[in-house]
Amino acid sequence: MYSSNKPLEKLNIFSFRGIQMRTFHLTWMAFFLCFFGWFGLAPLMTVIKTDLGLTKEQIGNIVIASVAATVIARIAIGKLCDSWGPRKTYAALMGICSVPVMTVGLVHSYEGFLLFRLAIGVIGASFVITQFHTSVMFDKKIVGTANAVAGGWGNLGGGVTNMVMPLIFTGFIGAGYLPESAWRLAMIVPGVMLLIFSFLYYRFTKDTPAGNFDEASISGASVVKTKGTLALAAKDPRTWALFLAYGACFGIEITFDNIAALYFFENFDTTLAVAGMLAGTFGFMNLFARAVGGIVADKVGRKFGMAGKGRLLALLLALEGIGIAIFAQSGSLAVAVITMLAFAMFLKMANGVTYAIVPFINPKAIGSVSGIVGAGGNVGAVLAGFLFKSSSISYSQAFVYIGVAIACVAAVVALINFNKNTETTASETAALETVKA
């Protein structure tokens, strides 16, 4: 049922009707483009490695830099969503970050490239805004599904980037440019798209179904802006359990997005295009896998409550860890691809389940909880990045260590009582509706 100023109780992905569905589609599209800009360099790293004369350790530092800045950025952006509103926050983030994306081609040294990769990484905070925006646009009955679909479709940018950027690069080669110039020109494409979309997002979305945060009076519904939301989020142990969980799923996802093409290229002697396509299939599973996690989480939550969602998340993380360890031992390209698709399914479902829990940790601090948990994803990616930069550890060994670490996180999540102070209480259900209104 559609209402002009209330969260929707149904997700119709084929509809653009109303501010809720228009925002839903624009927010996943924005995240898609942010992912495209964030990881546009990843499938071109074999060319950049040669052009800039990069060592394995330097590439490891670059991988870490691409996700390190996002840790702080996600926490800050989450707070801004609670106080400034998602509309202005998203528009500003895309506009500002389009600059380093477009101009990264100006660098000619490892140090300069590292700094640009760090700056571009800030755009990864876009995920927090997408999850906040869908959380306030949809009813608690369906919010897990809405968050998962929006996040998953946005994450598609990681897969599409691995497939499309080599084609854009090849297009510039075909136009007569040398490889050392073609990769630089290719990055202008996602940068321009981000800049254009920042204006579209500001023009065609609103902070909540009832209106924007800066409107004094909004047609019978008030927008509540709570002070001290970061402290409210940080003092709840469930926030930090999800912080660890997201580091073990999304953190590994973006690490794999960064390293997959290079891994296939070097370990299985594929061409750059084939390596990009194989890496792209990993990201392309976000078309459905993360959504499946959100849908299953909503169903489990209705039957078994938050405790059921927590156990589901622990199970998926355990299966993900086992899958990654098996992938690391693959002796052939076919086996590697099959095991990659298997662990990718569990990983992306875990992403969806995590953010099916986030909106209910503290309904008065959705942005801050989302920011801290989102930052956990990047902390996980940073820690994984240190494994891949080590000269004494092979990429295959790094994946085995990661698999073991994920299994340990799964055990921690299984011990957490997610039922504590959840949406099952009448007072917090009312609070959630107030924030959404």
Automatic annotation (TrEMBL):
<feature type="domain" description="Major facilitator superfamily (MFS) profile">
    <location>
        <begin position="23"/>
        <end position="423"/>
    </location>
</feature>
<feature type="transmembrane region" description="Helical">
    <location>
        <begin position="59"/>
        <end position="77"/>
    </location>
</feature>
<keyword id="KW-1003">Cell membrane</keyword>
<feature type="transmembrane region" description="Helical">
    <location>
        <begin position="271"/>
        <end position="289"/>
    </location>
</feature>
<dbReference type="Pfam" id="PF07690">
    <property type="entry name" value="MFS_1"/>
</dbReference>
<feature type="transmembrane region" description="Helical">
    <location>
        <begin position="240"/>
        <end position="265"/>
    </location>
</feature>
<dbReference type="InterPro" id="IPR005829">
    <property type="entry name" value="Sugar_transporter_CS"/>
</dbReference>
<keyword id="KW-0534">Nitrate assimilation</keyword>
<feature type="transmembrane region" description="Helical">
    <location>
        <begin position="89"/>
        <end position="108"/>
    </location>
</feature>
<keyword id="KW-0812">Transmembrane</keyword>
<feature type="transmembrane region" description="Helical">
    <location>
        <begin position="310"/>
        <end position="328"/>
    </location>
</feature>
<dbReference type="InterPro" id="IPR011701">
    <property type="entry name" value="MFS"/>
</dbReference>
<feature type="transmembrane region" description="Helical">
    <location>
        <begin position="365"/>
        <end position="386"/>
    </location>
</feature>
<feature type="transmembrane region" description="Helical">
    <location>
        <begin position="26"/>
        <end position="47"/>
    </location>
</feature>
<feature type="transmembrane region" description="Helical">
    <location>
        <begin position="114"/>
        <end position="132"/>
    </location>
</feature>
<feature type="transmembrane region" description="Helical">
    <location>
        <begin position="398"/>
        <end position="418"/>
    </location>
</feature>
<dbReference type="InterPro" id="IPR044772">
    <property type="entry name" value="NO3_transporter"/>
</dbReference>
<dbReference type="InterPro" id="IPR004737">
    <property type="entry name" value="NO3_transporter_NarK/NarU-like"/>
</dbReference>
<feature type="transmembrane region" description="Helical">
    <location>
        <begin position="153"/>
        <end position="177"/>
    </location>
</feature>
<comment type="similarity">
    <text>Belongs to the major facilitator superfamily. Nitrate/nitrite porter (TC 2.A.1.8) family.</text>
</comment>
<dbReference type="GO" id="GO:0005886">
    <property type="term" value="C:plasma membrane"/>
</dbReference>
<dbReference type="InterPro" id="IPR020846">
    <property type="entry name" value="MFS_dom"/>
</dbReference>
<dbReference type="InterPro" id="IPR036259">
    <property type="entry name" value="MFS_trans_sf"/>
</dbReference>
<keyword id="KW-1133">Transmembrane helix</keyword>
<feature type="transmembrane region" description="Helical">
    <location>
        <begin position="334"/>
        <end position="358"/>
    </location>
</feature>
<feature type="transmembrane region" description="Helical">
    <location>
        <begin position="183"/>
        <end position="202"/>
    </location>
</feature>
<keyword id="KW-0472">Membrane</keyword>
<protein>
    <recommendedName>
        <fullName>Nitrate/nitrite transporter</fullName>
    </recommendedName>
</protein>
<dbReference type="GO" id="GO:0042128">
    <property type="term" value="P:nitrate assimilation"/>
</dbReference>
<keyword id="KW-0813">Transport</keyword>
<dbReference type="GO" id="GO:0015112">
    <property type="term" value="F:nitrate transmembrane transporter activity"/>
</dbReference>
<dbReference type="GO" id="GO:0015113">
    <property type="term" value="F:nitrite transmembrane transporter activity"/>
</dbReference>
